[in-house]
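Why does residue order matter? Because the sequence determines the fold. Keep that principle in mind as you read this record.
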Amino acid sequence: MLNVSAMSALYAATLNAFKAQGWAYQEVQEMEVVESIFEAHHAKIPVHVQVFGEAGIASTVATSSLTVPASHRLTVCELVMRTNKELNLGAFEIDWDEGRVLFRVATVFPPHRHDERVLASLVHAAVAEMDRLTPYLGEVCRTAKGELPLLRIPDLLRREDLLPPAPPES
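Structure:
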């Protein structure tokens, strides 16, 4: 936990956004970082929000609960690339060495204009996108290594039965 006097205004706004949403979180000592785990439709999704106060940047990263075997990483790269092509905000990444899939979204705030609703929206977007990708990622990971050349990622991405249900209208 940071000393309150050393805390940037953007980090304070991030903490307020988490509190306002009623989200459980943990602060990382000596850093402007908040971590949480969200229960989404398909999986529990760890989220890491890092603030760079002086630059006015807030970066949100959601991590898949699935680890991609080395034998499946090239196919997952295609899945990630094709998914990114359709995104308007943020992007998926793969940590090649660890076999982790991440979704990263960030924004830059103007000085002294830290909108807590935008910060909460970054978290919502990261969790929603990772939850949307999780069943597709699971299908790739469950495919036998010898059958991977037969798996057509464009066809897989057309499967609507793997999408989480649409949120109810409010």
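The chain is about 35% helix and 25% strand.
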